[in-house]
Amino acid sequence: MSEGFSRPVAGHVPVLRLGDVLLVTLQGDLYDSSAQQLQQDLSETIARSGVTGVVIDISGVEIVDSFLGRVLAEIAAQTELLAARTVLAGMRPAVAITLVELGLTLPGLRTALNTEAAMELLARPVVASRSGGRHEESP
Amino acid sequence: MHTAAGVEARLPIRSDMDLVWVRQHVRQAAARLGFGLVDQTKLVTAASELARNTLVHGGGGLMEASHVVSGGVDGLRLAFSDSGPGIPDLDRALSDGYTSGDGLGMGLGGSRRLVHDFEVESAPGAGTTVRVTSWVTGPRHPRGGH
Predict the structure, then answer these.
(1) Is the CB of A101 less than 8 angstroms away from the CB of B114?
(2) pTM to 2 decimal places
């Protein structure tokens, strides 16, 4: 195979802890099983460590199909139940265009243009709202 | 009418590792033909959805990729085939929100929106073949050419 292939990510996706936030950087092409493993690892790590936020940097991800989209949405829902918030950072424009056309708009998923903006978003206080969801206060 | 230069690659779809190879092959082939980044991303995403259908619903199968030319325009045709149970109700399978597996119901209907041409052949017990073609549109971006 030629050098143009990005290396598939098999097995473990590393999860880094930065204070109250877990940082996950997805790179290249993920196996389905790696995405599912990450989903499980994150829930366990949040429950064990009590972090309040998760940032998933997908700037190195070339495509998000409905499978990976579903895993990301489930991660966000799970972290919410574990009293933490997930922010998806750095989605490529071509990926965003494709997801909308595919019909997968991932409602409820917080996004930020990059990891730094995601960390800032998580640093803001959360207020409970009567409409069921929660929203961040503007600074 | 278009001329097909013949099947250029046959890739097995038997595991989630094969899905990775399918995506990478389609991305490389599309880039070589001069597809822009957004069109490449759409085609690779469609290929990933369809290959997963082949794996999950069809019990595995294969993808054939061919370079096609119509009116001087290059295209990439991908055919996903399996000899699985087939799709009993195609109209329903193509409608948005329909799902029979553990997806989000974006599989067929969603993939159709990501490509230019889309056809399905399927019958109960006779397997399924989905053929999609996308054409290089807009200004050419040949690889490495600036």
Answers:
(1) yes
(2) 0.85
